[in-house]
């Protein structure tokens, strides 16, 4: 029987203790404004002492705390934190996200403006279109491309020539963002533009950076119907240890494209005898969760939730959110109290994603 669990979540202690490998998560908690240390959620130590009692997590309280963390993050003085918080708010109620984007579209930081402009199109918040128009003259060409994408998504006619020029620019960041935008637009007339850009000599960038750009181009082409370009992505997963960035991006793109053919490869990265860095294993786990959620081994991923590295803990939270299993709400609630605010943001986004209605039901 399938049991749907909503506001109140019951998690048996043995599963939750899997997240307690490494330093005690409670020792990483802080009393700063980001911390939810005083929230009514049991700690891992308390769970370990009570193996027969289930841990109760109030779903509404945890969700509200996650929203508050993301609201604070979107107002942070750190632009990277603002960007991450806005990305995580994708799964928040529309009214919350819209209020945040209204201000973020005018942010002083170009990365924040780019993320915000893209989010308008992803969520089709077309009542914010008037705030996109000034960004067509933004000092950042990437932000201009994001504004064009969202206006296109909102049904407005846009000139693709500026994006075509970005593809030919020779600037690695700009080329990647332009390809991303064209792929997400879904306008098949862009296939020729992208293929022409691949012919542009790239003498000023490293071979690895060139491969990363080619992967982004391949993703855009697949989104535009050129399925044979999946082979470029699949090949990238098997890159050498010195090209870990290529492996990571290939896994992420395969996940976005829902390429089921790479599932066994992702499992071998996560579970195989060859020792991949933990960062790559978690990228593979997240990709696996996006393509085939039931194939992601929850216990292994939970083991990273108290890793010494805050980046690893953030990746762990993201993977749990992508898989969408409500059994992860307990560990994620504990991660809201992490000493690192970026981990809190990642956990908050994961909680909202699970609560968004796409989660795996608990099987009884």
Structure description:
The protein is mainly α and 364 residues long. Among the domains are: 6-77 and 306-364, no CATH class; 227-296, no CATH class. 58% of the residues lie in helices and 3% in strands. The protein is built from 20 helices and 4 strands. The strands form 2 sheets. The chain has a two-stranded antiparallel sheet. Strands 2-3 form a two-stranded antiparallel sheet. α15 runs antiparallel to α16. The longest helix is centred in the last third of the chain and has 18 residues, at 341-358. The model is unreliable at 1-54 and 358-364 (pLDDT under 50).
Provide the descriptors you would attach to this structure in a database record:
364 residues, mainly alpha, two-stranded antiparallel ribbon, 20 helices, 58% helix, disordered C terminus
